């Protein structure tokens, strides 16, 4: 069966912090319902104190969602935690997610606090949140640029104070898979009571390694992955949920991880988010890009038509698409052309086929993509010129 990983979706919180991705109340509720269908374990519904709109969204999502834990983010401040609880308390399974930065850079320049003050504050705020609910996640912002010994001491204390989940964010997308693995190992070795909390990771994609770092963390003992649909999020975004989940699904043989996500809801979730935000994914985006299951070259098309596993490592159906796509262009061969003709209902003689194929190739040299309408024109024109 492998190791079970909990999927913590933060599309509605960290994802929404992506430029152009803000959502209104109704849109957030719709997205939250889709995340429930996708079967994520935790929905981070927002940052309740950030605005009245965010507060209302967290509250309504908490009331609506029945099968996932619903979390609200809160800085390590009493007023944030009070507000998070006021919004999230309606959830069947509420979680308060509180955080404070722990790297020297953040402590010195942003918080203007000494490490000991940060530690004391973290402990006090976890205790404060614990008065409200059982499930408390604590995040050490900019963890990967923090002193691991200090972090371990801080984690030890917040676990004693009642934190149930310890989150290790790579806030600025700075780490690499090997380094992150070693970092988490060091934290584990130096935190006596680490087994009393769940280890979570939260990776940003500034160097394009968010998914790789997330998966490397599992090897070191992480059991919760934080991610967003389409990888939206601050700057270059967060680890993409669809990539993490399909990597676990497709490479179970080496990763040996599984989660509860219904992969057939992935495409629907991706499309819904793009429709709501108006932010579309790039065509070559892994898993959900328009070209992720499209084949253009003749060699690939021939291979896939004979046996799909020649060039497809997962099925389009597994993410909720009905079919793969054969894009007809200048690299396409006769097999794919003939296959498309059959789909369109044409059964040509060998001579007719050769003529149409030549005309198709001529057209493909001039156009990026040859559409079904173009093929219809070729066949119809030939039929008119050479009536049977
Ligand atoms: O990237 C980050 O550090 C965060 C925390 C608030 C978890 O989003
Ligand atoms: Zn983040």
TrEMBL record:
Mn(2+) binds at residues 14, 202, 204, 238. Its EC number is 2.3.3.13. It comes from the Bacteria. Keywords: Acyltransferase, Amino-acid biosynthesis, Branched-chain amino acid biosynthesis, Cytoplasm, Leucine biosynthesis, Manganese, Metal-binding, Transferase. One of its GO terms (cellular component) is cytoplasm. It catalyses: 3-methyl-2-oxobutanoate + acetyl-CoA + H2O = (2S)-2-isopropylmalate + CoA + H(+). Pathway: Amino-acid biosynthesis; L-leucine biosynthesis; L-leucine from 3-methyl-2-oxobutanoate: step 1/4. Its cofactor is Mn(2+). The keyword Nucleotide-binding does not apply. Homodimer. Belongs to the alpha-IPM synthase/homocitrate synthase family. LeuA type 1 subfamily. Catalyzes the condensation of the acetyl group of acetyl-CoA with 3-methyl-2-oxobutanoate (2-ketoisovalerate) to form 3-carboxy-3-hydroxy-4-methylpentanoate (2-isopropylmalate). This is 2-isopropylmalate synthase. The lineage of its organism: Bacteria, Bacillati, Bacillota, Clostridia, Eubacteriales. The chain holds residues 1 to 388 of 504 of the full protein.
